Amino acid sequence: MRNTVAVLALLPFNALAVGYGWLAAGMTGWAANADGEGEPYEPPLAELGTACGAVMIIGVALWCARLRRAAVFQAVPLLPLVALMTG
Question: What's the average model confidence in pLDDT over 13-25?
C-alpha cells in the first residue's frame, strides 16, 4: 500500500521531469530541421541528463526508504529519455 501511495504521489513530478526532457528533445529536433539546411539531429544531452537525474534521485531516495517497488517503478519514465539520448 505504501508503494502505491508513493508512486501516485510522485506521478506529477515524473510527468514534469519527463515532459521537460521530451520538450527539450522536440524543440532541438524542430530547430535542426527548421532552417532547411538539413543539419543532423543532436540530442540535448544536458537537458535529458538533468531530467534523468531528477527522476533517478527520487528512485534512490525511495530505495533508501525501503519502498523497493516504487523505486523500481521510477525506471519506467527513464526508458524513453534514455532512448532519446541514444537517438
Answer: 88
